[in-house]
Specification:
Order of helices and strands: HEHEHEHEEHEHEEHEHEHEHEE
CATH architecture of the largest domain: 3-Layer(aba) Sandwich
CATH topology of the largest domain: Rossmann fold
Radius of gyration: 27 Å
CATH class of the largest domain: Alpha Beta
Number of domains: 2
Structural class: alpha/beta
Helix content: 40-55%
CATH superfamily of the largest domain: Response regulator
Length: 329
Amino acid sequence: MSILKNRKILKLSMATALTLGSIVSMSATAISQDKAPLKITMVAGVKGDPFYITMMCGAKKEATRLGATFDFQAPESFSPTDQIPIVNGVAAAQPDIMLIAPTHDSAMIIPIEQVAEGGTKIVLVDTSLQNISSTVAQISTDDYKGGVAAAEEIYKLTGGKGSVLLLNFQPGVSTTEARGRGFTEKAKELGLRVLDEQFSGTDIQKSTSIVSAVMQQASDLSGVFTTTDFGAQGTVAALRAANRLGEIKVVGFDASPVMVEQLKANDIQAIVSQKANEIGVLGVQQGVKAAKGEPTANEPIKVSTITITKDTLDNPDIAQALQETECRD
């Protein structure tokens, strides 16, 4: 074989090798660029609650902005019985990230740990757990300070006179327990007489019955702090039936559409509201960081509350605390 022919073969082999190298390099780049988007699942505390809907809207928008997919699920009632099957389904699906508002601080520990064992990054939003070792971040309202703000508002509204009632949600829920503790401690510090704590869950009629009975037992009742809008609706019904709307002052928690209408009508006098949208946004951000191997917040993230009265309802900064029943955009 001639030297010239050998040179031609060598050049052809080198060109082929370069071409194949380019194809391999381009394929690797394409695979890198074609990486599947992160999958996020949010499990709320209960279906249909404006607080969780508002949180979901913020989380969904942020997930879209970050290029992740988003799925939302919620139980029919705020209970481990209804939430655990949903969480078990998430464990089987193995999304990259799960945002969850546990419906009980101990009963939900093991189901959530099982999701984490499958590689899913767990972010607690709103409520928390007694053991957070399986989670990568925790975002919630500063509920204790929210309760303190409610006590301060009740004190102003009542002039510090008479007795006040704490109408709470249900035992074992970290958020409402913190609200109640903050309210009770601050109210007593201010010199208010705080009646025994009552629980009404999501049962509006039960709230009505409780407040009606307390009015009969405590003739000096001057104020009610209810940690949920369910309690506020029941309280307003009881006061209306007794013709004492406006006389007994009511401070609610969370600016749901129903409570905003009650505030406008002066059926309740103030609302301490969370920033649900912001909690959802922060939850997604922390989850995505964890999924990418980036550091997350070392301490639980606490989001402040806003106190709303009829006079401040139209202030621009109040808009961030108003809740919705469907996403605005």
